[in-house]
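Weekly modeling sync, notes
Attendees: S.R. (lead), two postdocs, one rotation student

Agenda item 3: backlog of single-chain predictions. S.R. asked that every request posted to the team notebook include the full sequence so nobody has to chase files. The rotation student volunteered to paste the first one in as an example of the format we agreed on. Action items at the bottom.

Example entry:
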Amino acid sequence: MKQKVVNDFSITVGSVNGSGSSTANNTILRAIFKMGIPVSGKNLFPSNIQGQPTWYTIRVNKDGYTARADTNEIVVAINPTSFARDLESVAPGGAFFYADDIKQPVTRTDITAYAMPIKQLIRAQTEVPSNLRDLVGNMIYVGVLAQMIGMDLEKIHSALDFHFKHREKPTMMNFNAVKAGADWARENLTKTDPFILEPMSKTDGLIMADGNTAAALGAIYGGIQFAGWYPITPATSLAESLNDYLPKLRKREDGKRTYAIVQAEDELAALGMSIGAGWGGLRSMTSTSGPGLSLMTEFAGLAYYAEIPVVIWDVQRIGPSTGLPTRTCQGDLTFTAHIGHGDSDSVILLPGDVFECFEFGWKAFDIAERLQTPIFVLSDLDIGMNQWMSKPFEYPNTPMDRGKVLTEKDLEELKGNWGRYLDKDGDGIPYRTLPGNQHPMSAYFTRGTGHDEYARYTEEAAVFHRVMERLKKKYETAREYVPAPIMRETRGAEVGVIAYGSTESAVEEARAQLAAAGLKSSMMRIRAIPFNKTVEKFIQKYEQVIVVEMNRDGQMYQLLCSDFPALAPKLRSVAYQDGMPASAAWVREGILKFAKPAKSSPKAKKKSTPKSSKKVTVKKSKTSTRKGAKK
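Predicted structure, as returned to the notebook:
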């Protein structure tokens, strides 16, 4: 056997959508996590219901990098349709496990191939009903793989027990199939590949979760009272998680519920209901993806102009149109920033990991009620539907911020001297009353047409201008309330790198590789729009600032150039979109388009010129600001 490769490789399983392999793959993922080894899992599945090829990639990395790997060291092939593709994808020196009933040739001599009698072994498991053999049969390859790479069977049992919610019968039925595969491999296979797992302690104190579940839990801990939603990939599981957890966490002692979750007839109705609930004083939200957000545009404009708090989660997928429903991207940013017709500015939160999905789940309500405006939270399919390691979620340690809500006592003290859209504090944020307020001066008429500071209908040009300028002032005030960027600065850094959302893991890995090659960089992860002063200062600090994102046109780059036109000559765009999660390879290649390592040693030179088959779109801003732009 070659020199061991310990805790640093990827495992890809090629199967059929709807075959039940998801349980097996998640079992592998969780078992490795329980061994204390950093791990991440990414599911590449088709948008049809079943029958098409699907792949699940597990990355094992002792250093804790969780971005998608570009190489497949271990491949498990149980789908005849994708067999040739799976075989070709194995990296030289890799291992190829395949079901022996697939009668296709294995012609490669630069890899190790292991045939597995999956059907034969599962038929021998008499406790497995015939109608479940295909599903439970997936556990055979789990057992074979466990034996060959050193996966702890006790950890596999623990993972199965978790999956089946501590029900002994399904847990043992699947675990016995795992043992059958492991026993067969021990007796019949000789290991000649180098890949091995060894226990670590790097996952101690961490959990595994997906972003949609985290967002739902965050919303619950933030006091959600209403959610209107309509099913759409990849956001559906967020609303489903609300339905799973709310009955357990939000019932009164008398058994009555303190919330309402309504599946609407379409996305437009879902947001309309949520806005109505927000107007009524409830903490209200909806969740969707790009096509659904497009349908919500008109109501989003109403909530902005009528100043109604509501939270809108957009779990992004590939567009335009239906696009690729089960692929990830960051393509809704510029659309969301100015959603709707006329002049409007959106407040956007950009969670970068599962923990922040939970945090922003509750924090978005605070910001929405403080600012009295829609808050958009832009996640993506990679964060939303895949499993990630995370530190445990933290219960909010601050009281709910309901914003500027007037009570009967407040109105009595004001003696009627208030207006629903009147700026009394100079921050652009007016006061509001809620239904149920009994004071005679509490009422006002909410409308999406022209209105003055006292909610009275008007078409006076000067009044409309005044209201719109106040809304712009409120947007400026929002900079104080949105989450600040995360900074990771390096002494002696030559370039700055800006990232946001799920690209952070790939950017951090690429930065480490470039640093080893002699190129030092600092990184800032933007977590919200509007930008605060920290963003401007970071750009000012470096001669070149590279903006990395998963879309074709460099949408964050565009917004930064628009907000800071005098600094635009410093900005460079590394934008790439193919529906796959970001990898360190294309991030590194994109950065090297603009910045080269300082070292000139052969070792540094070798590390700084990685090979990649992907073409990265890069943009260099013009050296002059746009005509008429403010400096």
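Discussion: group reviewed the output briefly. The CA atoms of residues 388 and 421 lie 43 Å apart.
Action items: rotation student to repeat for the remaining queue; S.R. to check formatting next week.
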